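Working notes for the structural subgroup meeting. M.R. asked for a predicted model of this chain before we commit to crystallization trials. I am recording the input and output together here so anyone reviewing the notebook later can reproduce the run.

Input as submitted:
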Amino acid sequence: MIRKIIVEALKPLNVPVTFQKYSGKADTYITFHEYFETGEEYEDDEETLTAHYVQIDIWSKNDYEELVKKVKENLTKIGFKRINEVDLYEEDTKIYHKGLKFYYLEER
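Returned structure, recorded in token form:
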């Protein structure tokens, strides 16, 4: 379910968005994965709220500042909360990489 929510939220950005890895040829693309999922609230021993911790990775050979802004806007607009972010450069592939971590609370 969380995968579909992320893909739908980022689809309007008109860059490829894929789960975990990308095998296309675009110079700019987004991958994502869930690195932690946990129960947040319980009622009568039943999980009622699940927290999804996800990382959104933006990869680009060009300036990605505007794309980063739009990713954050699109996700926070639907309830994602930003945890942190980091700028990286992948020396082996000569590509810029922005890692954004968010969490999302899903009612059960």
